[in-house]
Specification:
Elements (H helix, E strand, L loop, with lengths): L13 E6 L9 E8 L11 E4 L4 E7 L1
Antiparallel strand pairs: 1-2, 1-4, 2-3, 3-4
């Protein structure tokens, strides 16, 4: 599932995100959503979330 729509993402879901420092390389980080940081219903680069580990990035894939 795509991470560009806020309605698809809930706290507790397993996702992959791209961290700010990994945007050029495209390295993905997997984790569980703690907080949704983007307020708008959609975002072209992915909804920004905070994982349970504290890492912040944009959602690329939802499991």
């Amino acid at each position: 599932m795509d991470g560009k729509e806020r309605k698809n993402i809930q706290s507790g879901k397993r996702v992959t995100i791209v961290l700010k420092e990994d945007q050029r390389s495209g390295n993905l980080t997997e984790g569980v959503v703690r907080d949704i940081l983007t307020n708008s219903p959609t975002h072209p680069h992915g909804i920004k979330v905070r994982l349970m580990s504290g890492e912040v990035g944009r959602v690329k894939e939802i499991f």
